[in-house]
Design a protein that fits this description.
single chain; 214 residues; alpha+beta; 8-stranded antiparallel beta sheet; 8 helices; 10 strands; 38% helix; 25% strand; globular; disordered N terminus
Length: 214
Amino acid sequence: MTGATEEADVPAGVLLLLRDAVGGRLLTDADGMAAVLTAAGWVRGTVGGSWACVEDPSWTVESVAHPPGLSVFTVGWDHDVARAVTRLGARLDAGEAGLVPGGEPDAEWRRWSAGAALVLLQHARQRWWGTRLAPAMLQLAVQPAGAEHEAPAPDPERARRVARAGSPVARWYLAGDATLPDDVVDLLAADDDPLVVAALTAGEGQRLIAREER
């Protein structure tokens, strides 16, 4: 099982994201979020909205551009992930990026907030699902302060506008949407940016599941 490093160090790129989230520079739009992630040492993957940490690829980001939000993940053995959770929680409690503990009590999430950001930390331990051992997981969710966190309803017209006139990064994010209408899928399949086409291909399975559930 791969995952959090033995030393359970928190990559600098994670903490840089928190500082930019608090300062209002991270959770803006597709291009603004991508610029911050890139500057903090993250690289785009083949799945729309997915990023890997250059310093330690066992740390990943899953992000959405509309509305903007992201979660940082690392997975691995129980003791390694638990140490990473402890170290990250201690840094946030100590005021990393100016964050302050607080919020409504929650059995699953620890909360911090400051400036433009709400930060939530969750720790899931290893568990068996039938014959499969699911790894332990750290999830650090970064959301706009005071925003509603329900998933937005599908917006076919917005998807068409982005597919036709959005930036390459905005189209890459769009390609990860599982609810795209068929004409938008066709537009993105013919995109001149190979990363957009790769993200669309990677999301095919989720689009099929979404269609079956409608």
